[in-house]
Amino acid sequence: MVCFISFLLADVFLLICVAFYTLLERKVLGYIQLRKGPNKVGIMGLPQPLADAVKLFTKEQAKPTLINQWPYVFAPIISLFLSLSIWSIYPSSSVHLYFSFGVLFFLCLSSLSVYGTLVAGWASNSKYALLGALRAVAQTISYEVSMVLVLLSGVFLVGSFNFVDYVFFQETFWVFFIAYPISLVWVVTTIAETNRAPFDFAEGESELVSGFNVEYSSGGFALIFMAEYASILIMSMISSILFFGGSSMLLLSMDMFLILKTFLVAFFFLWVRGSLPRLRYDLLMDLTWKSYLPFSLGFLFFILCLLLLLGF
After folding, report:
1. What would the 3-class secondary structure string for 19-85 be?
2. Under a CB-based contact definition with an 8 Å cutoff, are residues 278 and 197 in contact?
3. Does the residue 258 lie in any domain?
4. Helical H runs in 59-179?
5. SS3 content of the chain, % helix, strand, coil (to 5)
6. Is residue 74 domain-resident?
7. Which InterPro entries match (predicted)?
8. Helices 2-32 & 218-244 angle (0-180, nearest 10)
9. Which pick of 25, 83, 161, 177 has the fewest CB atoms within 10 Å?
10. How far apart are alpha carbons 47 and 226 in whole angstroms?
């Protein structure tokens, strides 16, 4: 019961973080483009996410006549549920659920999350939504291959599937310093996995009229984007643990450091969106299959050979 309450509270705080992360994104993009972000609602626009939430969940829900009713309704809920479930791997000394095989749990749920996008596009019964969903599926499956290989390199290096062991393994140094090239591959892969600019082909407003969510409005639209922003924060947290985690202090006392590193990685997502134009789709696929896949495999073999030479 205590674990369930802890898990529930963690999800509530994640949703609050998602709300204010959207405000941070709009502010950052505003200043990057030499304009102001939201600044009219309350003090410095801070209540803006709450106003947006009220607007989205109280406006009229559009009901297209040709949709597949139940898949259309449940697809956003499934996407958000899967994103919130991944948060249970957060390493903490508080009473909370965490898994000895957290890496495998993360891979399973992140692989399932693509089904929410696919079902949303298919159930909308619109060619634009279906095209956006199919592009998202192809993109996610492609980049998952290099993501798994990068995680396997970390698993062989640390010798564990538990994210808590990654924290203690990096007590004296960060893995980032010995795996700098592969960490850059990981960062680009996480941006592509979360369908963020410059890899936001699932939406592709200029050619797909908002993509897979074109038939959604009101609460369904809000749930889809809550799932997307929750995935960004989760990927930022996992990136921090994999490459920047580690402290000689207890997990409880290093939580603030982990939150700070997670915030910096999440800020990098916004910086990239405000700086880079959208890539061409064929270049996106060439990047993962012709560059990241062989490089990730080569680095994995390098780690294995290094461990064999050192006698581990």
Report:
1. HHHHHHHHHHHHHHCCCCCCCCCCHHHCCHHHHHHHHHHHCCCCCCCCCCHHHHHHHHHHHHHHHHH
2. yes
3. yes
4. 69-86, 102-123, 127-158, 163-169
5. 75, 0, 25
6. yes
7. NADH_UbQ_OxRdtase_su1/FPO, NADH_UbQ_OxRdtase_su1_CS
8. 90
9. 177
10. 17
Give the separation between CA 136 and CA 131, rounded to whole angstroms: 9
Which residues are CB-neighbours of 292 under 8 A, at least 6 positions away?
A: 143, 146, 185, 188, 189
Residue pointed to by tokens 């916004």: 270
Q: pLDDT for 163-212, tens place per residue? A: 888 888 887 788 888 888 899 999 999 999 888 888 887 776 566 577 78
Domain hosting residue 120, numbered range: 60-310
> pLDDT (tens digit, 9 = 90+) per residue, 277-308?
888 888 989 999 999 999 999 999 998 998 88
In this structure, is residue 37 part of a structural domain? no
Verify cis geometry, omega within 30 degrees of 0, for the bond prior to 198. yes
What's residue 10's pLDDT? 78
Q: What CA–CA distance (Å, rounded) separates 22 from 84?
A: 17
- Asked if residue 41 is part of any domain, the answer here is no
- Closest of 210, 231, 229, 213 to residue 221, by C-alpha: 213
Q: What total number of domains does the chain contain?
A: 1
Task: Tell me the per-residue pLDDT of 74-118, one tens digit each, with 9 for 90 and over.
Answer: 999 999 999 988 887 877 655 455 567 888 889 999 889 889 889
Q: What is the pTM of this model?
A: 0.91
Backbone angles phi, psi at 164, to 5 degrees: -65, -35
Entry field: residues in the chain: 312
Tell me, what amino acid is at 17? C
> Measured between alpha carbons, how far is 261 from 108 in angstroms, rounded to an integer?
25
